[in-house]
């Protein structure tokens, strides 16, 4: 059966391997078979988060025909912290519920 293994080392850069595995193969077996370890020797995929079709899963997850295995890189910035910093930069009047809205007079 055929599955695809993907890894994105940086924004707008995606490495993709199409792999043939036996029925009942796991995520770990697909990653090993892909040869990704040779292409990215510095990546410790045993400790990285992985998923199938955008849903986080474990290395022991059994794959089906056509599955897409994704290896996730760690976040550079905590999303909550980034939102707080963006809000602080923009100010209370320019963001979210407090954004300025245009007030119009009555229609004539």
UniProtKB/TrEMBL annotation:
PANTHER family from the UniProt entry:
UPF0125 PROTEIN RATB
* Protein name per UniProt: UPF0125 protein RAMLITH_01835
One Pfam family named in its UniProt record: Ub-RnfH
- SUPFAM superfamilies attached to this UniProt entry: MoaD/ThiS
Alphabetical list of InterPro entries matching this protein: Mopterin_synth/thiamin_S_b (IPR016155), RnfH (IPR005346), RnfH_sf (IPR037021)
Please tell me the species this chain comes from. Answer: Ramlibacter lithotrophicus
Q: Which domain of life is it from?
A: Bacteria
**Family indicated by similarity:** Belongs to the UPF0125 (RnfH) family.
């Amino acid at each position: 059966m055929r599955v695809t293994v993907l890894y994105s080392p940086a924004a707008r850069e995606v490495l993709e391997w199409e792999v043939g595995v036996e029925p009942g193969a796991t995520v770990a077996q697909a990653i090993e078979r892909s040869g990704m370890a040779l292409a990215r020797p510095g990546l410790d995929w045993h400790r990285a988060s992985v998923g199938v079709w955008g849903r986080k899963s474990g290395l022991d997850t059994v794959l089906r025909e056509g599955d897409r295995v994704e290896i996730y890189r760690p976040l550079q910035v905590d999303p909550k912290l980034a939102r707080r910093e963006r809000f602080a930069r923009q100010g209370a009047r320019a963001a979210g519920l407090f954004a300025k809205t245009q007030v119009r007079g009555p229609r004539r």
